[in-house]
Amino acid sequence: MINLHRLFYAVRPDLTARLMAIDALQRQVDVRHLEGRRVRPENLHITLHWLGDYKDMPHELLCRAKEAGGSVEMASFGVGFDRIGSFGGAGKGGLVLTGGVELKRLRQLQRALATEMEVSGIGHHIRKPFNPHVSLLYCDEHVGREPIAPIRWRVDELLLIDSLLGRGTHVNLGQWPLQSRQMGFSDW
């Protein structure tokens, strides 16, 4: 069976951050003579939870995923990635952005979404552990992680994405602004 759809929740960098990520990637490609498949700039993202690969999109899962995504209540926040290198250990290739302290709120968003996924009945898709990264290049070479000038942006929305496998195309199936719930009189 051929899987045509990859369904996942994600956040995306803004245009400035995408340009900075592409520049950081190009410097590594030039210095290390790396070859491989680059992630299209418009497809750069951080996966929060992967919901699976499917030949046909499961309607029930899609409805529950939209319900969970639309239920997340969290204010927008900033993130920063300050390292570039391979994600896996020795022998594993690919080039990703990673970070540290500036990803605390991103981890909180991932946990808040996991809570809503449980409530919506799709908790079996919760991703543990969560190691935030932005994939830039798929290649065979292993590149040790090294510091770079931080690439920062403001996360202001949560996305549900259908990646059309083999086509390099992402389709937004859900998009929710991050905002805190306003207090009502019952909250006083």
From TrEMBL:
InterPro entries: Cyclic_Pdiesterase, RNA_CPDase. The keyword Hydrolase applies. Coiled coil: none annotated. It is an enzyme of class 6 (ligase). Pfam families: 2_5_RNA_ligase2. One of its GO terms (molecular function) is ligase activity. Keywords: Hydrolase, Ligase. The keyword Hydrolase applies. SUPFAM superfamilies: LigT-like. Its EC number is 6.5.1.-. This is 2'-5' RNA ligase.
